[in-house]
Amino acid sequence: MRRWAVSPSLPPAAFASATLGLGVGPPQARTLASAATPPPLGHCSPPCPRRPRRRRSLCSSSSSAASAATTALAVEEARRGRKQLGMDPPLYDYLLSNVREHPVLRDLREETASMWGSQMQVSPAQAQLLAMLVQILGAERCIEVGVYTGYSSLAVALALPESGRLVACERDERCLEVAKRYYQLAGVAHKILFLPA
Ligand SMILES: C[S@@+](CC[C@H](N)C(=O)[O-])C[C@H]1O[C@@H](n2cnc3c(N)ncnc32)[C@H](O)[C@@H]1O
């Protein structure tokens, strides 16, 4: 029986817990089941009281300066591979100092840091966890729904054996172009099949 692993495209903060929470199928199948979907919004019981909306000024110079500073900080943090995931800074620094990141993954992360949506990218630690799961399961067939610029799919492809295949689904052609470039650079392009083709 074929072995499949699913890489969920969830926001990074949810990614590790969703990955860890995946059910492991029957021993023969060694299936890493599909991603848990986030709970639907607005379905609290009893219903949550509505919070008053804060007005935001889009034209105040102080707010735009603050927002530019926040963006610059976020880009720098992403470039350094930082995504706190609710950890104390010392603990997170310890974690990062022990993450092994392939040089092509590092280059991809650095290029993606200044791109729109870079906060969607999984962290180096999350990618390493995913690669480790592929190795532990001995997965040979994986699917990623939502590739973005390819960070997690590249980590998975690097962990797959030569005969392994990853089906990569992404609707944004520009993101996919970046991903394809890095699959080539890392020498794993032959392991990737694209959907839509
Ligand atoms: C959270 S990001 C994936 C991040 C990626 N795992 C990484 O580590 O860089 C989600 C991606 O899913 C893609 N996406 C969303 N809906 C999709 C759909 N219906 N079909 C294909 N791709 C989709 C978006 O374009 C986006 O690039």
TrEMBL record:
Residues 37-49 have a biased composition (Pro residues). GO terms for biological process: methylation. This is Caffeoyl-CoA O-methyltransferase. Coiled coil: none annotated. It holds the Pfam family Methyltransf_3. Keywords: Methyltransferase, S-adenosyl-L-methionine, Transferase. Residues 33-63 are annotated as: Disordered. GO terms for molecular function: O-methyltransferase activity; S-adenosylmethionine-dependent methyltransferase activity. Belongs to the class I-like SAM-binding methyltransferase superfamily. Cation-dependent O-methyltransferase family. It comes from Triticum urartu. SUPFAM superfamilies: S-adenosyl-L-methionine-dependent methyltransferases. InterPro entries: Cation-dep_OMT, SAM-dependent_MTases_sf, SAM_O-MeTrfase. PANTHER family: CAFFEOYL-COA O-METHYLTRANSFERASE 3-RELATED, O-METHYLTRANSFERASE-RELATED.
